[in-house]
Design a protein that fits this description.
Length: 303
């Protein structure tokens, strides 16, 4: 039986307290290194499973490849990267499908199982605190890479962010007794937060200075480098947000790939951010809160 759940993944109740989560994601190259592209694609595809509170168990590879233009040795590196991440997540690759295409694309359909609580993105509560498990900025740095101006250190840093699984982030959410979780990807922080708020007469305050952003991304942004998707993201939510600074709003709309988990947790939850980093290895940041006193759905406060 399918559950009505327009969320990060589709939840199917098989009965006997058994529920599975299914999701799919694939995209064109985001990094020049094919092995790392494969790693990012796999990490990104797994993210929705973790956002729903699931444990990934199996996956199917999806490949579109211009075999006359790009050698299969490159594809081999891509697949090796994806396979290594799936192995690290204890998620078996059980098959897949490939087609000829003018532009390379790679990703996975992933199935997970939910043994405990199903987390939905809209189960927010008044007074909840908002937390983010990864810094923003991957869209900006990816744009810098495409333009050929990204520093090697910036590439290494964003690769590390995008290839970090959100499994530890889910454990942090459980530790915080989270009410709601979503992962931050293509619609940016503002877009995904607006989805969390869609069914409630509630609002969110975001403190810009508390939102983690990769420093390289800030530098590129202030040089005029950012993805066109960021502006589209901001335009899509402009009627429901208030902000003091246009640039701050645009940074929070950065189109992410394989971003972190956005967690809404009860205000009374006892939180020691330093201890959480020691235990789970997650650099958790508190970035705002949910409130019933609002001017707009999302209020961006500079500091």
């Amino acid at each position: 039986m399918g559950l009505e759940n327009p969320d990060d993944g589709a939840v199917i109740d098989l009965g006997n307290k058994t529920k599975i989560v299914q999701t799919v994601d694939f995209f064109t190259p985001i990094l020049d290194n094919p092995y790392d592209w494969g790693r990012v694609a796999a990490t990104n595809a797994l993210s929705d499973i973790y956002a729903m509170g699931g444990t990934p168990i199996s996956s199917l590879q999806l490949v579109s490849w211009p075999r006359e233009d790009i050698g299969f040795d490159v594809l081999s590196d891509v697949i090796r990267g994806g396979s290594d991440v799936m192995k690290s997540a204890n998620c078996n690759i059980v098959g897949g499908h490939s087609i000829d295409d003018k532009e390379p694309k790679y990703g996975f359909a992933v199935t997970g199982i939910v043994n405990e609580k199903i987390y939905t993105k809209t189960n927010i509560k008044n007074g909840d605190k908002l937390f983010l498990t990864k810094p923003l900025g991957s869209g900006i740095i990816a744009t810098a890479i495409k333009k050929g101006v990204a520093d090697e250190e910036a590439i290494n840093q964003v690769t590390n962010v995008m290839t970090t699984l959100n499994d530890a982030g889910l454990e942090v959410a459980k530790h915080l007794n989270a009410n709601a979780i979503t992962d931050v990807t293509g619609f940016g922080l503002l877009g995904h937060l607006s989805e969390m708020l869609i069914d409630e007469k509630l609002s969110a305050n975001l403190i810009f200075d508390k939102v983690p952003i990769i420093e390289f991304a800030k530098n590129y942004f202030h040089s005029g480098i950012y993805p066109s998707g960021s502006q589209r993201n901001l335009d899509s939510v402009k009627d429901i947000i208030s902000f003091e600074d246009q640039d701050e709003a645009l940074l929070l709309a950065d189109a992410q790939t394989s971003g972190g988990l956005l967690i809404s947790a009860p205000a009374e939850t006892d939180i020691d951010l330093i201890e959480i980093e020691k235990i789970y290895g997650v650099f958790l940041k508190e970035i705002g809160n949910i409130t019933d006193r609002y001017n707009q759905k999302i209020n961006i406060i500079s500091s």
